[in-house]
Each structure stands twice: as structure tokens, then as C-alpha cells.
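Reopening: Threonine synthase still failing for me.
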Amino acid sequence: MSTAAPEIQKTARDGAFGNAVALSCRECGNRVELGPSYACPECFGPLEVAYDFPAITHEEIAAGPANIWRYKALLPVPTDIEQSPNTEPGFTRLLRADNLARELGIADLWVKDDSTNPTNSFKDRVVACALSAARELGAKVFACPSTGNLANAVAAAGARAGIRTVVFIPSNLEQPKQVNSAVFTDSLVAVEGNYDDVNKLAQEIAAEEEGWAFVNVNVRPFYAEGSKTLGYEIAEQLGWRLPDQIVIPVASGSQLTKVHKAFGELIELGLVEDKPYRIFGAQAEGCGPVATAYKAGVDAIRPVKPDTIAKSLAIGNPADGIYVLDIARATGGAVEQVTDDEIREGIVLLARTEGVFTETAGGTTTAVLKKLVETGQLDTSLETVIINTGHGLKTLDAVSGRVGPRATIPASYDAFEAAGLA
Ligand SMILES: *Cc1c(COP(=O)(O)O)cnc(C)c1O
Ligand SMILES: [Zn+2]
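Support: Ran it again with your exact input. Result attached.
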């Protein structure tokens, strides 16, 4: 098995990856050169970026731009990253959620609202890091298999960078997510099958074609690091403190594992005080392989065939699932799952209490938060953050049957009164 796409340059210019020094294997610790590799040549374990960080201060970070590049010293990107055209994602709002907190009986609750990123999901963060790596490695095509949001982010980032994009999606994807890609690229490819089929195809293409950077395949270690910025921002926006509890949606599990990595790095660098925190994962019952393994108390994740409205979370064989299990257990969190109906309720609940319109992934997270409270798994006296990872306008169909006009009336005062709205 080939673990790299040899056709992309292996050596990049000096400083191309900032303070990153190697790719290291999560399983055996083996180190390989920074490049388009994603699996350990010794044991096939996943590779992740290792760094040699200099001392970093709050002031240096605060002096940076209001986007993810304020944390560039902690990312595998060059020091002049701001000079390269990119979508400049991040530094999204951390909103106090007092109404939702009251509704659920939680003392202290925040929503990290990543729906306001350039293409309205957290995927802009990971794609910005993958784009930098693709550029530094001399890739000619910027590509991805996607459950929807990733394709939107790749297509937009490639357009800004002036690099050819080809994005692959399952053919049954929500129409708004298809349009949100196709508007940026002429090469949206709808594949007959589910995400796991699309992903398999992408792996084949990455191994065969020259110069293709698949953001979540052959440059995945760089891509994944982008999710750390969610963790950095939450800590910085809380006044350089870690929350006590955080609820994060799980598809491949990458985001959850990287928020944990980010918290650990901040502690290690002395940028926040060391303290215990609990990480909770949120899945849909129609695609809950990690939640199922968590409940069963087992370490192995049995892949499932996704069947849920939460399409952005519909990965039946999650690459980082086992690490999510480890982190949830080690931190005293949990991985919980909810039904499609609960997801729809979650979307409306967040909208009506906080004025935030989330997509099905955020509906899942909100509904899981509620379930964690109801089942006593979450400590309602502790400070809690939930992540809204995407915008509701992309999954309108999920709630269009549930919300709508309360009344349709003629344009007369009498009709208004008769409708009982006064
Ligand atoms: C991709 C995605 C996720 C989950 O990402 P993973 O890192 O694969 O677990 C969550 N929410 C939304 C909206 C997404 O698009
Ligand atoms: Zn290894």
C-alpha cells in the first residue's frame, strides 16, 4: 500500500510549515518528513503534525489578525501565510446562551457560532490549512470527498487561490449544499453512493493522479490541524481559560480530537491554566457508530450505513472514532446520539432561544446537550460550551415541514384580529 502521493513534491521551501517539524504516527510515534503522507509507513497508523514551539505570549496572538492566522505559530503554515489569497476564516463569535441555559437548566452556557465562516461552516478552517500545504507542496489540483460543507469550503478557497478544484459528493446531498459548491467550481462531481463510497474513490484517485491534493486524504494531517483553532479561540474568548465542558459534533471525529489537542497545547505553552475539562461527542442515531461503541463500553467501532438527516455527520466509518472514544472516556465526557426528530427539535430550540440558525449538525449538538442534561451525564453547574458548526440555510428541508406561517390572512385588520395574533 502506498501511503503518499509521490507525484506531489516531497520537499517544500524552508519554513513552508512554520514551527512544524515532522509528521508523527499516533500509534507508534514513528516520525516521517513533512509532506503529502497520511499513514505511517511502519504500522499504517494515522500521521499527525508534530511541532517545536517557541515561547508564545497572549500579546503576540492578540496582535494578529481577527482570523485563524492569529494562531499561525501553532499551525503548519508559513509565517507569511496572510500574504497568500485565502478565505481568512475563524475568530467567529462566542455567544452567551442564557436563554437556552435557562430552558435546559444549565448555569453557564456558550455557543461557539462557526456558521459565520466564509462558506458558513467550520470547514473553512481546515481547508485554509490544507490549502497552504497543497500550495507549498506544489499541488495542481485542490480536491476532496465531502459530505457537503467541505466541498463548499474547498471550492471557494480554490477559487480565491486561483487553483483548480474538483469536489466529490454523494449524489443524494441536499440541493443547497450542491449549489454552494457549484457556484465556486465547474467541477462538482456527484457520485452514486454514500460518503464512504466517495471517500474510497478519492483515495484511488489520490494514488493514481499527478499533483492532486485531496484535503482530507493525502494532506489530511495538515487539514486536521485547522480544527485546533476552534479550541484556541474558545479559550482566548473566555479570557484565556478552558471551559469545564464542551459538546462537539462527530463525523470523522477529527474536530473533536483536535479541540482536545488544542487545549493540551495551550496548557503546555502556559497560555491557560491547567484544569480538568470534559469533552462530549454528538452523533445522530442514524449514523452513531462512535456513540454506540461508547455505550457498549467497547474499543472497536463497527462501521454503519448512514441513514440520517444530519448528512454533514454521515460518516459510517469514522477515521478518528477510536480517538474520540479515548478522549470522551479519559476526560469524563461521553458520546451521545439523538434521533432525526430530536435533531429537528434541536435546530428550532437553538433558533428560538438564541437567534442562531444551525444546520442539522448543530441540531444534533443542541439535542445531545439536552439529552446529556436529561440523563444526568452533564454537570449543569459547570461552564459549558457547544459548537455550532454550520448554517441552517444549507439544510432548510430539515425544518421546512416543522416551521412556517402561523396563518395566511387577507390584508385586513379584521382578519388579523380573527387570527388571534393581537
Ligand atoms: C464536517 C462537519 C462536522 C464534523 O467534522 P469531523 O471533523 O469530520 O468530525 C461537524 N459539523 C459540520 C457542519 C461539518 O460539516
Ligand atoms: Zn506507526
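The chain has a mean pLDDT of 95. If you still see a failure, please send the error message rather than a screenshot.
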